Amino acid sequence: MSEDDELKALERKAYRSIFDDGIWDLFMGLIILSIGLSTFIGTILNLPEGWDTIIPVLIMNIIAFLIFYLGKKFITIPRMGFVKFGPKRKVKQLKLKIFLLFMFLVNIILLFIPLTGVLRNIQIQPLMLTLVLGLGAFTLPFCVVPYYLEFTRLYFYAFLAGIGLFLTEMLNPIVSSPLDIILSFAITGGAIVIIGLYYFIRFLKKYPLSE
Amino acid sequence: MAKKKAESDDIIQPLSDIDKIIHEPARLMIMSYLYVVESADFVFLRNQTGLTDGNLSSHLSKLETAGYVEVEKKFKGKKPQTILKLSKQGRESFEVYRKKMERMLSGLSEK
What we know:
The structure holds two protein chains of two kinds. Chain A is mostly helical. In chain A, 80% of the residues lie in helices and 1% in strands. Chain A contains seven helices and one strand; from the N terminus they run αααβαααα. In chain A, α2 (23-45) packs antiparallel against α3 (51-80), α2 runs antiparallel to α7 (179-206) and α4 runs antiparallel to α5 (126-149). Chain B is of the alpha+beta class. Chain B has a single domain (2-110), classed as Arc Repressor Mutant, subunit A (Orthogonal Bundle). Chain B has helices at residues 2-17, 20-23, 25-36, 42-49, 53-65, 88-110, and strands spanning 37-41, 69-76, 79-86. In chain B, α1 (2-17) runs antiparallel to α6 (88-110). Chain B starts with a helix and ends with a helix. The chains are: A mainly alpha, B alpha+beta. β1 (83-85) of chain A pairs antiparallel with β1 (37-41) of chain B.
């Protein structure tokens, strides 16, 4: 390994340590969990059709963002310290922010699609539709995030996010709706939250708060 | 015999020009970390290097005295925060150090 490679490896090691806290995992897990739970919350609150998903998803996403922001600010930085990376990382982060903003707008549009009633006219086998929709609308865009972040665990989470809808369709004959969607996203999102909690606890032990 | 001595002197000679401030292992580690990032605070550097507070502090003082590291002390809320970054001189000295070491080590491996 040349000295240049060693310095690059050192920078990568320092950079990847920012994912030791498990907060990204918790954030992604909560976002996926929100899809299932929003249906549950929407049913409980007896919200009008269409809005029963939109309002709870927005609320849960805001909660996930708050956990991410406050967790990083009040838990991670005081324990792990603060670091600013070089210009190459900044460019990558900027590209990711632009992509996330774009995806946010796309998701807003997707959320409103059920209100238009277009989905009722689609004549595709439900299992195939959910698989294509899941991998196309969740997994592929989700894969851009770990690419820019160089955070490999997220590729697995992207896959889990994608199979959520497919799993719902698989569970549908066994459990009634909305329990199928709640269960499938509780399994996929819950698995990510558990992984996140494992990393978070490990982080708290590894990086005690200095006096 | 004399030729061999001259050859080994050629290889070893750059060692006497090596920057002693950077060459110390702990300081070399600190300089390497600060070289690959734009800036970092004391806590981050301590966690990455595994040095104790006292050790890190004393090495940073030496690097600051040499003009290699810029230290900015500020408050974040009520807590003090020490931000560290390599100065222009520090960055250049580190690059010179790397080139000298590389030249010397490659010279050794050729022999």
